[in-house]
């Protein structure tokens, strides 16, 4: 099959001029996840504040700290490419965060159902990030950018671990306790209120 003019092979050179199409797309997707991580950094604070259990609140706080590191890692990747770090609006992350906010509004505060729902909302985000970082690692390797690939792979692993941790939290207790709740169930004191009373 006839293809158009063969592209010159990619190299590790990063002179800031991106004329390779795949390289341009790679950069574009980096900007997408850079924006997405920063939005998630803010959203995790709201999700934390909405938790019923301390266990989930701690998991969100740990992942918030991890997310800060992931943003720094992306700064490093931009630097390796001789590009300035900048975000590009990610409609998917905006939508997932909007959905998380709706879930908070539509579930009762102080219930296990709230936590079960928050876990699912967070896992939707993790899955988006896993798809993005997975793709970015593959592209980085194709483009011979091995240092960038290993940085992105680190974040990919963190997203996968977070996804697994959330599954474990849901399946070990929260889902079962949520299943017992009905409209008349007594509300628990949300984790954020408990920690506030210790201050
Ligand atoms: Fe992340
Ligand atoms: Fe996106
Ligand atoms: Fe994440």
Structure summary:
With 199 residues, this protein is mainly α. The chain has six helices and no strands. Residues 7-14 have low confidence and may be disordered.
Protein architecture, described:
The structure is a single chain. This protein is mainly α. It has six helices and no strands. The protein has helices at residues 21-50, 54-80, 91-106, 112-142, 146-179, 191-197. The longest helix is centred in the C-terminal third of the chain and has 34 residues, at 146-179. The protein is elongated, with a radius of gyration of 20 Å. The relative contact order is 0.16. The structure holds fe (iii) ion (3 copies). One fe (iii) ion binds at residues 37, 40, 67, 70, 129, 159. One fe (iii) ion is lined by residues 32, 36, 90, 92-93.
Number of strands: 0
Computed Rg: 20 Å
Poorly predicted tracts of residues: 7-14
CATH class identity: Mainly Alpha
Could you state the order of secondary-structure elements as H and E? HHHHHH
Q: Could you list some keywords that capture this structure?
A:
single chain, 199 residues, mainly alpha, Ferritin, 73% helix, 0% strand, elongated, binds fe (iii) ion
Spell out the blueprint of helices and strands:
Blueprint lengths: L20 H30 L3 H27 L10 H16 L5 H31 L3 H34 L11 H7 L2
The structure holds fe (iii) ion (3 copies).
